[in-house]
Amino acid sequence: xxxxxxxxxxxxxTSVRVSDDALIVDLNDxxxxxxxxxxxxxxxxxxxxxxxxxxxxxxxxxIHWPQLDEDISVEGILAGRRSHESRESFEQWLASRPRATQxxxxxxxxSVRSDRSPGDDAKHYxxxxxxxxxxxxxx
Length: 139
Fold this sequence. Notes:
about 35% helix; elongated
């Protein structure tokens, strides 16, 4: 019987870019992989500055965005795993963000706010705006 020894390489991220619609990761084995930004709602909502501010976890086994409180593993990207954050958790996080930092949904927030009239019930519109934002992220 012949046995073949193989060396297993840990695949690690070497650089990260976030475009308007994709997360792009260069790997230590020479590959570049990408995933739709819609898979990661917090990244989708982040500003360019927040998306550019990332740190490697475990020397590239994962990626952490401190301002967005987002962690994504290289293994997860390679396996095609989306964010598993619950809708309720994402809604709470989104509601806690200052409006000025909501980049991915900035134009959306501006458009839903533009149809308000002075004196409209703020709570009603806040709930409606949040629902519209969630729908936009999910589409």
